[in-house]
What we know:
The protein is mainly beta. Helices cover about 10% and strands about 30% of the residues. The protein has one domain (about 1-70). It has a three-stranded antiparallel β-sheet with strand order 2-1-3. A two-stranded antiparallel sheet has the order 4-5. The mean pLDDT is about 95.
Amino acid sequence: MAHYAFLDDDNKVIEVIAGTDENILIDGLDTETWYSNYRGVKCLRTSYNGKIRKNYAGVGYTYDPKRDAFISPKPDTAIGFDEETCQWIVPIDDTSN
């Protein structure tokens, strides 16, 4: 089983599904192409372990084609962005003392 993210025209994730394994052809097409054609919107594979596209896609995330990465919405508390992981840098709240 593989997971796929559907994107709107602004590369925002609008849905994530579990689908057919990525190494299986459907009607002679790779899965991303088949799902894109079937739904009429762009479809990209995503991965829980971050082996592809840096982060597992979630609804509201943005796909950045230059980084080939899914990026979460920017938190209000973000103080930067980690280019390697494509994750926002957020200070750790250490109020436990």
